[in-house]
Design brief:
Layout: H1 13-45, H2 53-66, H3 68-78, H4 80-98, H5 108-122, H6 125-136, H7 142-170, H8 175-196, H9 209-216, H10 230-234, H11 237-258, H12 260-267, H13 275-310, H14 313-338, H15 344-359, H16 362-373, H17 377-405, E1 407-411, E2 417-421, H18 423-443
Antiparallel strand pairs: 1-2
Helix pairs in contact: 1-6, 1-7, 1-8, 2-5, 2-17, 3-4, 3-6, 3-17, 4-5, 4-6, 4-8, 6-7, 6-17, 7-13, 7-16, 11-16, 11-17, 11-18, 12-13, 13-14, 13-15, 14-15, 14-16, 14-18, 16-17, 17-18
Length: about 450
């Protein structure tokens, strides 16, 4: 360890670590959001209708949910560096293989299996990002760091529909080439990450003692996980409430990622006639995620500000999230009320508001997982994200069935059969989402970020 005086200003290596993790968050959402733009090509390549696309998303989300805790445990036990490298290499392989859909043996059942393996590979990315932030940032900056992560994720999720239009219409790439390009970008990230990232500040040669002291203030020395207190973790009422709360977010939110871009094209066909119109639809389709960036950052800054001002971590995490859930529910009711007979822009404003208010809860949620998980933060984050993504599976299944039951087939001017969902199907979904959000407000009353599952001075683990 270096012996320079502690009066020397801390180095800022943690911010370069944050930048690497933010870019990873961007890649994870890019590789998922691309399916919302490519679904007609993907389903056509395997001879299925677009209305069956929800089966693809369910396969991904189910695997993503089931493998969150095992991969979170790997990050806590072996460190996030090796775990994240494995995660990105795995999922990049299956993104690239998806580009061969419809060729040879890659028929629909095989395609679904590939999406399951894709979800298995991406599982654990955010719990291990969360563990990395716990290792690299002091408690006073955790909300900010989580806000930066989710801002980055939402940014790329929102930009992907626009990027898709640009790559296909302006650069002439087809959907297969786009998937291979995105997989290649992830491989480049792995190389840079492996060179620069280390699990903890004391392992990184570029940090000085002042930065290490700043980051580690109040933390105990790292301990191994020979005896992870699994029963204590999974029977903790705080964690159970946190998991139930996160089901709300994922039950509702994935509509914006997977369905909104296609819905806009179908419900507002007058805006799909020119390249400029296509760019507009791509922009609006991604706008809830783009504006969600501001929600992520605001949620992180507000929760940190409240805690610094009052010292009350319980309400500092709780009040911002409750506000976000309540307003997101109101925005979804607005979307349901304005879909029929209102202008495109009125509906778009409601959908965009959903994205902002939903994302106010992201930083408080993940910071709370760090607060109560501490040295088991990747396991706790993984549990929260696992149950949350089981909520996503349930939401995708119910929404998919509702939308399919309201689908009608028509023949366009070129003689091609086109499936369109009647507005009533979307109105039912939006009303359901609003009710779920209001339940989410109530769920936060059972979450207390000031009560860790295993205190740092507990030697029983």
């Amino acid at each position: 360890m270096n012996s320079e005086p502690v009066s020397i200003a801390p180095t800022r290596v943690r911010y370069s670590i944050l930048a690497l993790l933010c870019f990873l968050a961007m890649i994870t959402y890019m590789d998922r959001a691309v399916y919302g733009s490519a679904k007609s090509d993907l389903m056509g390549s395997v001879g299925r209708s677009v209305s069956d696309f929800y089966l693809v998303t369910i396969c991904f989300q189910l695997a993503y949910a089931l493998f969150e805790i095992p991969t979170g445990w790997m990050g806590d036990k072996y460190g996030p560096r090796s775990t994240l490298i494995r995660i990105v290499l795995w999922w990049s392989l299956f993104v690239a293989l998806t580009g061969f859909s419809g060729w040879g043996l890659i028929v629909f059942p095989v395609f679904l299996a590939m999406q399951f393996f894709f979800g298995m590979g991406e599982a654990g990315a955010f719990p291990n990002i969360s563990r990395s932030l716990y290792n690299w940032f002091p408690v006073s900056q955790r909300g900010f760091a989580q806000g930066a992560i989710w801002l980055s994720a939402r940014f790329m999720g929102g930009m992907t529909p626009i990027l898709w239009v640009f790559l296909t219409l302006y650069l002439g790439l087809d959907w297969r080439q786009n998937l291979w390009l995105f997989a290649g970008i992830a491989i480049v990230w792995v190389v840079v990450f492996a060179i620069w990232f280390r699990n903890r500040p004391d392992e990184h040669s570029a940090t000085n003692e002042a930065e290490r002291n700043l980051i580690n203030a109040g933390k105990t020395q790292p301990v191994g996980h020979v005896g992870v207190p699994w029963k204590k973790i999974f029977t903790n009422s705080n964690l159970i409430a946190l998991c139930a709360m996160y089901m709300v977010t994922n039950f509702n939110w994935y509509f914006l990622l997977y369905n909104l871009p296609g819905m806009l094209k179908a419900q507002f066909p007058e805006l799909g006639q020119t390249r400029e119109d296509m760019l507009l639809l791509g922009l609006v389709g991604g706008a809830p995620l783009l504006i969600g960036m501001a929600g992520c950052l605001c949620g992180g800054l507000l929760t940190d500000w409240y805690i610094r001002r009052t010292g009350d971590r319980k309400w500092g995490r709780r009040i911002i999230a409750m506000l976000g859930y309540g307003l997101a529910g109101i925005a979804y009711l607005g979307a349901a009320a304005t879909l029929k007979g209102s202008s495109f822009w009125v509906f778009a404003a409601c959908a965009i508001a959903v994205g902002f208010f939903n994302d106010l809860i992201m930083s408080p949620s993940w910071a709370t997982a760090q607060d109560i998980g501490r040295r088991y933060s990747a396991i706790v984050s993984g549990a929260m994200n696992m149950i949350g993504n089981l909520g996503a599976v349930l939401g995708l299944l119910i929404s998919g069935q509702i939308l399919k039951s309201y689908s009608v087939s028509t023949v366009d001017a070129l003689g091609k059969t086109v499936e369109t969902v009647q507005p009533e199907g979307y109105i039912i979904c939006f009303t359901l989402y609003a009710v779920i959000y209001f339940l989410g407000v109530f769920s936060w009353l059972f979450i207390d970020a000031s009560k860790p599952i295993v205190p740092d001075d507990d030697k029983s683990a």
